[in-house]
């Protein structure tokens, strides 16, 4: 028997190349989060979950969860941990906070995702080493497999097997970056056209620079509560209706199930849909924040989250079905392509975006009309793990 | 702010602005010119596990036979004598049946290019001077593995192109001989 759990508030730092330290980002996000829910104070927090991937490499700091507790004045009396799941670390933190509350262990949790990724420019190769180490370092990272060439190969295979077009990839990038142009905290606040994507530097063909998410500093926080507690502090929440996660016992190149399909995403989505009672995701989901680390990723996700037949993802984009007024508004926040991708913070920010879409507090240019249901999705590493969470608007 | 800032802009220690005067304890400051100096290294040598190549000797890995075979000119991997499962990367315990009774078997040295791209910027440490380089996934039949594709231009390659193994020596910060495998287009 599990309990109903809701997101009752959250907050954000400005994302970008920040002239700020790891600890500064934590404090900014914490302040914004607590200010969003005036009736919850740091003293109310029973569990603290911090999503952060490489503080040891980017900020030379470990044991970061107690650092967050100290900086935000949180006396944790039940659960405290940092979660590391590469690009899905923020969603992992959110998932564990949900589980802890659903299981009745705690009533109130703080989830904070943070990453300081920008080192001085001369240390770019060092930062890229840390990113290549997200793959199996000994057998894949060694071959220069950081994210851009790896996802370029996924694009190449998807185009080869399913006739997905370069233009469809560019349409995803232009859509998401244009959403971000109207998002005050996004790293990249400039409208981008399909031609602009083509004209950007061809970093790892077929992918150009604008097909890639940025190297971004940022943090975001969420407060989660049991329904009973939530009713004491707010009249609006985003209920977590389902949460699935899958890894098929594979991580390195030889053992991954496919270079053009992510069956892990399909399984994770099926778990979440079943918990949420969603039979027809395209008809029932209003807004989705999916992991567009690269433009190709979003197209594969349309397919493997069960929205269209395999190979039809490019058409889903081309036909406008993922636009703000389409079947499912995908990445109205601006996605990783527009907001940037401070690894540990992304999943937290996506969930906050869905809640903000529900309560109508986002910039009007990117507001989805009256959303009632939402989804967040993150892949991590070599896309060996996929995490899916469904949310529903709650009026208390 | 210190009015004099900028006069000695080349020397960070002298250009630093004096702290604003506050009430209370007199600051311990002499302009920063007479302080004890703590020396730390100006550069730090590449840590041994940041050069991407394992140490490849018996003191550091239990798959040393893989690297020994590679030094001898043969790409190999482990196969389970109990259940027959072929692994790549090589293992010390079979993930299918937990047996430790594994043997090293030869992998083919010729295969087909399954996927490839090129790295034009943003390469990891130790590779930044090699850009642009081609990297890809090679299908050897029973195993599909990643590998650098040497002596090739991205625009000249196609999926399915035949490639063959080459073995390179690694000249780095450790004393013992290290090697790794790459691929190149077949003649």
Can you walk through the features of this model?
The complex is a heterodimer of chains A (396) and B (187). Chain A is built from 15 helices and ten strands. With 396 residues, chain A is of the alpha/beta class. Chain A has two domains: 139 residues, Thiolase/Chalcone synthase (Peroxisomal Thiolase, Chain A, domain 1); 241 residues, Peroxisomal Thiolase, Chain A, domain 1 (3-Layer(aba) Sandwich), CATH 3.40.47. In chain A, strands 3-2-4-5-1-6-10-9-7-8 form a ten-stranded mixed beta sheet, sandwiched between helices. In chain A, a hairpin with a 4-residue loop joins strand 9 and strand 10. In chain A, helix 1 crosses helix 3, helix 4 packs across helix 15 and helix 7 crosses helix 12. The radius of gyration of chain A is 19 Å and the shape is globular. By secondary structure, chain B is mainly beta. Helices cover 6% and strands 27% of the residues of chain B. In chain B, a hairpin with a 7-residue loop joins strand 6 and strand 7. The longest helix of chain B is centred in the middle third of the chain and has 8 residues. The interface between A and B is large, with 39 and 35 residues.
Topology:
The complex is a heterodimer of chains A (396) and B (187).
Chain A: E1 5-12, H1 22-36, E2 47-51, H2 55-58, H3 64-72, E3 79-83, H4 89-102, E4 108-115, H5 124-132, H6 147-162, H7 166-180, H8 194-199, E5 218-226, H9 227-233, E6 236-247, H10 263-276, H11 281-284, E7 287-289, H12 295-304, H13 313-318, E8 329-330, H14 335-339, H15 343-359, E9 373-380, E10 385-395
Parallel strand pairs in A: 2-3, 2-4, 7-8, 7-9
Antiparallel strand pairs in A: 1-5, 1-6, 4-5, 6-10, 9-10
Helix pairs in contact in A: 1-3, 4-15, 7-12
Chain B: H1 12-15, H2 64-71, E1 76-80, E2 102-106, E3 110-119, E4 133-139, E5 144-149, E6 162-170, E7 178-185
């Amino acid at each position: 028997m599990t309990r109903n759990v809701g997101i009752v508030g959250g907050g954000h730092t400005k994302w970008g190349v920040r002239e700020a330290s790891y600890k500064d980002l934590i404090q900014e996000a914490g302040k914004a989060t607590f200010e969003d829910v005036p009736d919850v104070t740091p003293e109310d927090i029973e569990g603290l979950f911090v999503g952060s991937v490489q503080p040891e490499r980017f900020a030379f700091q470990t044991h970061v969860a107690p650092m967050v507790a100290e900086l935000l004045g949180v006396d944790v009396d039940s659960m405290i941990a940092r979660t590391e799941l590469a690009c899905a670390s923020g969603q992992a933190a959110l998932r564990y906070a949900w589980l802890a509350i659903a299981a009745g262990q705690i009533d109130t949790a703080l989830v904070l995702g943070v990453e300081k990724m920008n080192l001085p420019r001369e240390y770019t190769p060092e930062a890229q080493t840390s990113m290549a180490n997200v793959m199996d370092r000994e057998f894949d990272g060694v071959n220069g497999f950081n994210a851009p060439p790896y996802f370029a190969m996924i694009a190449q295979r998807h185009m080869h097997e399913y006739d997905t077009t370069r233009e469809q990839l560019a349409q995803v990038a232009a859509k998401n970056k244009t959403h971000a142009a109207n998002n005050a905290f996004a790293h990249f606040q400039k409208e981008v056209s399909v031609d602009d994507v083509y004209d950007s530097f061809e970093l790892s063909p077929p992918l150009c620079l604008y097909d890639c998410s940025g190297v971004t500093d940022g943090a975001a926080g969420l407060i989660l509560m049991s329904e009973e507690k939530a009713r004491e502090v707010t009249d609006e929440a985003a209920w977590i209706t389902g949460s699935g996660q899958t890894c098929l016992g594979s991580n390195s190149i030889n053992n991954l199930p496919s270079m053009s399909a992510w069956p892990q995403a399909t399984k994770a989505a099926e778990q979440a849909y079943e918990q949420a009672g969603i039979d027809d995701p395209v008809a029932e989901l209003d807004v989705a924040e999916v992991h567009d680390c690269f433009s190709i990723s979003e197209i594969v996700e349309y397919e493997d989250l069960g929205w269209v037949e395999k190979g039809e993802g490019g058409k889903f984009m081309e036909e406008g079905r993922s636009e703000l007024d389409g079947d499912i508004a995908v990445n109205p926040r601006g996605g990783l392509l527009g907001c940037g991708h401070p690894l540990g913070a992304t999943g937290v920010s996506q969930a906050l975006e869905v809640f903000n879409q529900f309560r109508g507090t986002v910039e009007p240019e990117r507001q989805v009309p009256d959303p009632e249901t939402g989804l967040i999705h993150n892949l991590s590493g070599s896309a060996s793990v996929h995490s899916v969470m469904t949310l529903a608007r709650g009026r208390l | 702010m210190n009015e004099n800032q900028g006069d000695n802009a080349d020397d960070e220690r002298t250009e630093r602005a004096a702290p604003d005067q506050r009430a209370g304890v007199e600051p311990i400051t002499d302009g920063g010119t007479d302080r004890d100096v703590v020396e730390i290294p100006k550069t730090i040598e590449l840590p041994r596990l940041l050069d991407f190549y394992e140490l490849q000797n018996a003191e550091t890995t239990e798959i040393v036979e893989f690297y020994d075979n590679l030094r001898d000119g043969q790409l190999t991997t482990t196969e389970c004598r109990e259940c027959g499962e072929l692994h790549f990367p090589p293992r010390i315990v079979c993930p299918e049946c937990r047996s430790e009774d594994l043997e090293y078997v030869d992998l083919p040295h010729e295969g087909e290019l399954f996927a490839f791209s090129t790295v034009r910027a943003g390469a990891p440490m130790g590779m930044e001077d090699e850009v642009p380089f081609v990297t890809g996934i090679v299908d050897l039949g029973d195993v599909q593995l990643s590998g650098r594709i040497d002596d090739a231009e991205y625009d000249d390659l196609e999926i399915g192109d035949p490639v063959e193994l080459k073995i390179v020596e690694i000249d780095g910060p450790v004393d013992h001989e290290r090697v790794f495998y790459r691929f190149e287009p077949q003649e």
